[in-house]
Specification:
Layout lengths: L2 H10 L13 E3 L6 E3 L4 H18 L14 H19 L3 H16 L7 H21 L3 H14 L5 H13 L3 H15 L3 H18 L2
Antiparallel strand pairs: 1-2
């Protein structure tokens, strides 16, 4: 059998389910950018009509279609870092209310990141800002506010966030909510291991509980 006959035989056994490609004559109007076809097939004409209508609708929008976004806006990252550092500087000076204000601006800017930017980045930023703001509240003995901020920080980042765990535990202790403090610090130790500050806080809570219960 000749090679040409073998090729024809192979083609005849081709699966009818195999995808095929048919080149269609499409034209693009240089002025309107509308796409048309000389093919006459009804389905193709309907699809091209819908596509051209969508194109005209997009052109009629008051706001132009935005360009593809970059993964992370470096300017926003730099601004958030600067706000956190400004808050830290104010805290060291004892200007706790100003520190809270700077951390709050940083939180708002982090929450304002577009939805396409990495969620992990936003969570890390918020974890640090809320933990720092909790510390500023605690310096003013605003225990309830500090407790809330520290808890949010932990929700953003559970592992590797011992300071936030400790700060909420301390706030609970200062408010006299000893049973909650013990439960909270116990959870913290599950995530942070035998972190020294948390271990010390647990001993303090246990001592106060024993005194309260008369043991």
């Amino acid at each position: 059998m000749s090679f040409s006959r073998i090729r024809k035989a192979n083609i005849s056994f081709q699966s009818p389910m195999e995808d095929t490609y048919t080149q269609l004559p499409l034209q693009l109007d240089p002025t309107t950018k509308a796409i048309s076809s000389g093919n006459g097939e009804a389905n193709l004409s309907q699809e091209l009509t819908a596509l051209n209508q969508l194109h005209r609708s997009l052109l009629s929008l008051d706001t132009p279609v935005p360009p593809p976004p970059v993964p992370v806006n470096p300017k926003r990252s730099a601004q958030i870092t600067k706000l956190r550092e400004s808050g830290n500087a104010s805290f060291r000076k004892g200007a706790f209310q100003e520190a809270i204000r700077m951390y709050t601006f940083g939180v708002e800017m982090a929450l304002g990141r577009p939805a396409w930017e990495p969620v992990g980045l936003v969570r890390d930023e918020l974890a640090g800002l809320y933990a720092n703001r909790a510390q500023a509240h605690m310096a003013m003995q605003s225990w309830a506010e500090g407790m809330v901020d520290a808890e949010i920080s932990v929700e953003m980042k559970k592992a590797g966030n011992a300071k936030a765990w400790w700060r909420r535990g301390r706030c609970l202790l200062e408010m006299g909510r000893l049973d909650e403090a013990k439960e909270w610090v116990s959870r913290a130790l599950e995530f942070e291991g035998n972190e020294a500050d948390l271990v010390g806080l647990m001993k303090e809570v246990d001592g106060l509980l024993e005194r309260r219960d008369g043991k």
